[in-house]
Specification:
210 residues, mainly alpha
């Protein structure tokens, strides 16, 4: 086995293992106050959890493709979407929530895996592994999962209302604290951030193309 392929396997196995550990910690641990956590399966409403689980699932499928020797090229757009999701999670905590509210509660238990370790592993894997040149439309595909999450988040509030007081509310990210117009702007900014991240990772990968 070539060294590059061995590194690719190790990194993707690591991402899968981190996802499993993160899910176990999330399901069995107590919610950390002030860290946007819930109990058990309710955690699957959070962007952080869904993007990390998506990243782990894509890594698992990619592993199967690697071991069978076929299909890895078809996974590239999904790989790009997965790394963009966890990169946004990492950036929001590292550069916004952490400085504003303090880092400790965001890096405890499952959050330590999902806010820090797995995103860093996924970004490292995407940068280190050399791939064929990616066309531009892959960046649009990569932003779709974030767009779908945001659309479902806003649609749920539109149908069911905001609900009670935070954190027991449908607007648990407080997007609508300043009203719908600002909430829609926030939704657009997050989607564009995913697209921007996709453009960045595509550019880095294409410079190292096979």
């Amino acid at each position: 086995m070539k060294p590059d392929r061995r590194i690719e396997l190790i990194l993707n196995i690591g991402i899968v293992i981190l996802t499993v550990i993160g899910i176990i910690l999330m399901l069995t641990g107590k919610p950390v106050e002030g860290a946007l956590q819930s109990s058990g399966l309710e955690n699957f409403k959070f962007y952080t959890v869904l993007t990390n689980v998506f990243c782990g699932l894509i890594a698992l499928i990619y592993l199967i493709c690697l071991l069978t020797g076929k299909g890895t090229e078809k996974m590239t757009a999904l790989k790009l979407g997965a790394v963009c999701g966890v990169a946004i999670t990492f950036a929001v905590v590292a550069f916004m929530f952490g400085p504003l509210y303090g880092f400790p509660q965001f890096y405890k238990g499952g959050n330590f895996i999902f806010h820090l370790v797995e995103p860093l592993a996924a970004m490292a894997e995407f940068i280190v592994v050399r791939r064929k040149r990616m066309p531009f439309f892959y960046t649009v595909i990569a932003a779709v999962p974030t767009f779908i999450y945001g659309a479902c988040y806003m649609l749920n509030i539109l149908i069911n209302g905001i609900g009670g007081e935070w954190p027991n509310t449908n607007d648990f990210y407080a997007f609508l604290s300043w009203g719908w117009p600002v909430g829609m702007v926030i939704f657009a900014v997050i989607t564009l951030s995913a697209f921007g991240a996709a453009c960045l990772f595509r550019a880095i990968s294409n410079k190292r193309k096979i």
